[in-house]
Design brief:
mainly alpha; 30 helices
């Protein structure tokens, strides 16, 4: 019979026990994550908050094809270059179609995976299960994280975090393992970093994080190559910054703006107060909102002075930690490093968001864990155990608060009602609520909300355009006109305002003005299917049938509404004296989902087809369906 020395047996037993403890802690973290976010699986796409542009109306995510992959790597989406983000939606579509449950489930799974990677990272660096569990608990369940998880469009945050943590794990292995295995980890770290920046540009901070790690965790000879091995990372980060500067331009629907009135000093004053606000959100996560309206600061006042003093104290704390508790300093510095991309170094339209804290929460959660458990639990004296227990009790409500917060993100109406309650002076909030009411089929309430947005900012482009479009759709053509004219006057390079004004002229039978307006829109984007289709409609009404047929065909090639365009072509071709060709277009329209059979029966353009047996059979067949 085989036997083992007692010492060896004891080591194996301890190892098995440690694995079991780690497994139990990880199961608790994952299980609690799914419990907190379980209700989100019943949520809808947020049509008025990017989900429609990223997913619902985005043909490029509908399956994994070479064409879609090419689009992912060659296009900007809402001001972002994030091909991995778009590819992840392709995978969801392959598995779930356009069922939002599957997309949200992927978000929850990735958030849980990030929590486990963070737990494993802390275990590698500190060998302290209590610290790792508490920090991962805070990271997973802090309410500011709900926006990144419950909002499908913020998938890029989760993906970027996953690949950043993977890259960090590989970097640690590279820096701590002997040759020859270390180089394969270095390559893996670089590859994971590339995937991270292709998920979201905020990942550019990772080379700075690695430098902080080398300074705070490694000593002596291991720091000899502390900068040279960062060169590939810095090159990738530099390229990412250049791409992000371009993608964030307004012409790519990005968020770059110029605060020319306030100037650099005004931005500095404002961001000082924003930093204070972030600490409040972390330590008192009440009043969270999808939109914040922090006041722009152009002069020194009491709030700026207090924030400056607070920032000075934070700097002093950082200096103290670097001298006395270097490893604690790493996580403390990580928090501020992760805020750099959203600190208005490049001016963005939003100054503060919950999702901007997803990366900084790594540092904040680890610092809290180190305060509670500076050493292994068994090494703490009674007084320190009492402090640790008190600090743990403080964070116990976080899962409940996050669970409460998830309900806000269930649909457009719940989201924007919450935003207008939290930030009632934001025109963006009221515009969002107006659009939510439009989608819910409540036009009167929609108009009230959009008018509220314009009462706050009479020149607010989105509300001007959306109110004009709403009045167009409800037959209030005269009421729509002044809002659309003002939108076009103030924002002559905005496609939507021109398109809606063109529709307004068309509905008013002012076809020459409609033609001119659609042509202006087409000059901005020669491939606009809406402008091409609008011109087809105009030329059809002007009895310019060849021109109408041409523009409908161009709209089809540009990716317009194929069912409607086939129906419109049927009418034009029928009026041109080609009934058989018209029947082919009409059948194609019905096959593609054109459902307005009443319009088909009553449309004068199809009068020449009504005596044809094939026409009546076709209409009868689809009426029966």
């Amino acid at each position: 019979m085989l036997s083992f020395p007692p010492k060896r047996s004891g080591v194996i037993s301890i190892a098995h026990k440690n694995i079991a403890v780690h497994m139990a802690l990880c199961i608790v973290l994952v299980g609690a994550t799914f419990a907190v976010y379980a209700d989100t699986l019943g949520h809808s796409f947020l049509s008025n908050w990017d989900d429609s542009l990223y997913v619902v109306e985005n043909e490029a995510i509908r399956g994994i094809t070479w064409g879609n992959l090419k689009d992912a790597f060659t296009r900007f989406y809402i001001g972002n270059y994030a091909p991995i983000h778009i590819i992840s939606y392709m995978l969801d579509y392959e598995a779930w179609g356009l069922n939002p449950r599957g997309f949200i489930l992927s978000n929850v799974v990735m958030h849980a995976a990030n929590g486990l990677l963070f737990y494993a990272l802390l275990m590698r660096l500190h060998r302290n299960k209590a610290l790792a569990f508490l920090a991962a608990f805070i990271f997973l369940f802090h309410p500011v994280q709900v926006e990144s998880v419950a909002w499908i469009s913020e998938r890029k945050n989760l993906l970027a975090m996953f690949f950043c943590l993977a890259s960090f794990h590989c970097h640690i292995s590279y820096r701590t393992m002997p040759e020859p295995r270390r180089m394969r980890f270095y390559v893996c770290s670089v590859v994971a970093f590339v995937l991270a920046v292709l998920s979201k540009s905020v990942s550019v901070i990772l080379p700075l994080v690695f430098i902080l790690y080398d300074l705070c965790y490694l000593k002596g000879s291991r720091q000899v190559r502390w900068l040279t091995d960062k060169i590939p990372f810095l090159l990738v980060a530099s390229a990412t910054v250049l791409i992000a500067l371009k993608s964030q331009l307004p012409e790519h629907e990005g968020g770059r703006i110029s605060y020319s009135i306030e100037g650099p000093l005004g931005i500095f004053y404002t961001m000082l107060t924003v930093l204070t606000r972030y600490f409040k959100l972390i330590f008192w996560p009440r009043g969270l909102s999808a939109v914040y309206m922090p006041p722009m600061k152009v002069h020194m006042d009491a709030s700026v002075g207090f924030s400056a003093l607070f920032a000075a104290v934070l700097c002093a704390v950082g200096c103290f930690l670097y001298r006395k508790r270097t490893q604690f300093c790493f996580w403390y510095a990580l928090f501020f490093t992760a805020l750099l991309p959203v600190s208005q170094i490049v001016s963005l339209v939003t100054l503060i968001n919950d999702r901007y804290l997803y990366f900084p929460m790594l540092g904040a959660a680890a610092c809290y864990g180190l305060l509670a458990f500076p050493r292994d639990l068994t090494a703490l004296d009674l007084r320190m155990r009492v402090v640790a227990a008190a600090l743990c009790l403080i964070v116990l409500p976080l899962p409940y608060l996050s669970w409460q917060r998830t309900s806000v993100w269930s649909n457009d109406l719940s989201l924007w009602k919450d935003v207008t309650t939290k930030t009632p002076t934001s025109p963006l909030a009221w515009n969002g609520l107006g659009m939510a009411y439009i989608d819910a089929g409540r036009p009167i309430e929609a108009a009230d909300a959009l008018l509220k947005a314009l009462s706050i900012d009479p020149d607010y482009e989105l509300a001007l355009n959306n109110l004009g479009a709403l009045y167009n759709s409800t037959g209030k053509i005269a009421e729509a006109r002044p809002f659309l004219l003002k939108a076009v006057e103030l924002f002559p390079y905005k496609m939507n305002a021109l398109l809606n004004l063109g529709i307004n002229y068309y509905l008013s039978h002012e076809f020459e003005k409609a033609e001119q307006t659609f042509q202006k829109a087409l000059a901005l984007n020669p491939q606009s299917p809406q402008a091409l289709s609008g011109l087809g409609d105009v030329y059809s009404k002007m009895n310019k049938l060849d021109m109408a047929k041409r523009y409908y065909g161009m709209a089809m090639l540009a990716g317009g509404d194929a069912a409607y365009l086939e129906y419109a072509l049927a009418g034009v071709v029928a009026r041109g004296g080609h009934p058989q060709e018209a029947l082919v277009h009409l059948e194609s329209a019905l096959q593609m989902g054109y459902h307005d059979l009443r319009n088909i029966r009553e449309n004068p353009a199809l009068d020449s087809l009504r005596g044809l047996r094939e026409f009546n059979i076709l209409v009868h067949r689809y009426s029966a369906q």
